[in-house]
Amino acid sequence: CFCKLKGQIGDCSCNVDTVDYFNNIKIYPRLQSLINKDYFRFYKVNLKKECPFWSDDSRCAMKFCHVKPCKDEEIPPGLKGRILKHPYSNEEMYVKYLEESQHQDCDSDVIDELGYLNTTISAKAYEEFALWQAYDDAQDNFCTLPDDDGDAQYVDLSLNPERYTGYRGPSAHRIWRSIYMENCFRPKNTFDAYISTSKLNGLCLEKRVFYRVVSGLHASINIHLCSHYLFPETLSFDGKGEGGRWGRNLAEFKNRFGPETTKGEGPSWLRNLYFLYLLELRAIHKAAPYLSSIDYYTGREVEDKETLDAIIDILTIIRSFPEHFNESTMFNGGSQAQKLKEEFKQHFRNISRIMDCVGCEKCKLWGKLQVQGLGTALKILFSGKFDEKNGYPNTIEKMPYNGNGKEFKLERSEIVALFNALGRISTSIFEIENFRQMMR
Ligand code: FAD
């Protein structure tokens, strides 16, 4: 079977079999139960944002593209109108700062004066500080800022599953082409939108990584539509087109990933999916101390406690994984590397903007969520002050962010996107095993 991939996953020391075993037995079932908890099910998103690149053709009439937003009474009480408090929010940093200044007051008369001065200056500068912090946060992000404007609505992800929608043709192709053509780094003299795997070796590690994560995401989306496919021939004739059977479509899977139909590229695309999995897994591993310190608040006490227990459980398993992706080899060659990192961010932010141009609401929902999840993973991997000897810090605890004194923080929607994105990739790897069995 072409999907029985063997050996090492490129740019990682990890083996495909190890990932299959670890994911299918240990991670997949735990992630499924975690992302069904209220905290992870409700995602706030604006599906009406204007496409910034071309006039929008997203008025999709296809029935399976429709997304059903939540009614107010369906949203957990703790997510409504609450200013979400994270362990290291701006306000808290400020209060901590004030406390520290006051503490200094007790030491001596001189410090007393300075302490007073500091406090007054800070109080005046606080508004400005907050403004700059918002600006800096935007610069640190790999994605555009989370949707939290007037048009953003909560969606229950479990009621709007990612699956076959029928979205295809010029609109879908324009999105994929723009992502590959305009936003992915390309080898010199390559004019095709889609880079063949043999040409990838001509790119440096960082640019290869960029291409591979995009290709991995593309593969995952296409696996989902094959594994939750609507077989039209079984549609019942009730006059409304209702009914039909959802199931795995092996022929579609073979067509999209088989070597004969993809000029030999299909298996490499599947390999890129494994690569993306390892990268996202490593990000969660790195942020584990931070992720276990969040309250996962929805206002439903028992559920919130269960969510935290499930998080601790899955983080423990992720920590036991033998071969994580090693980000310390990326962006570590002085000022050139920092320039490359900025370009990498810029390209990735463009991809997150392109998601607003997707012409099918359901595809847009899952596209936005997965791009945000991946952007959050990259933010985690490349945060902290870079050290020539050791690369980026190995874990994120109360880690000063980018060496400018700020502490690391994630918005709720980033955490929701991070785990759901891994949930999607993990499901794809699980589904590949199902297709393998069908082929046998
Ligand atoms: P496409 O998948 O459109 O690919 C275009 C070209 O890209 C291919 O011809 C091939 O040369 C190359 N290519 C394909 N896969 C890879 C890869 N993994 N790596 C590198 N190159 C590759 N459809 C649904 O039914 N449900 C969804 O939820 C859904 N979500 C989508 C989300 C987004 C953001 C986008 C852009 C599209 C989505 N689609 C979805 C549409 C789907 O991805 C395909 O575009 C559509 O099914 C048409 O497929 P295709 O065979 O023409 O090739």
TrEMBL record:
Q: GO terms for molecular function, please?
A: FAD binding; protein-disulfide reductase activity; thiol oxidase activity
Instruction: Enumerate the active-site residues.
Output: C360, C363
Highest taxon of the lineage: Eukaryota
Q: How does it sit in the membrane?
A: Peripheral membrane protein
Keyword Ribonucleoprotein listed: no
Cofactor(s) in the UniProt record = FAD
Q: Where in the cell is it found?
A: Endoplasmic reticulum membrane
| Entry annotated with the keyword Disulfide bond | yes
Q: Which residues bind FAD?
A: R163, T165, W176, S215, H218, R256
> Which InterPro entries would you find in this protein's record?
Ero1 (IPR007266), ERO1-like_sf (IPR037192)
Regions that span the bilayer: none
The principal location of this protein is endoplasmic reticulum
A Gene Ontology cellular component where this protein is annotated is:
endoplasmic reticulum membrane
Subunit details for this protein? May function both as a monomer and a homodimer.
Protein name, per record: Ero1-like protein
* Organism, scientific name: Nezara viridula (Southern green stink bug)
Task: Kindly list the organism's lineage.
Answer: Eukaryota, Metazoa, Ecdysozoa, Arthropoda, Hexapoda
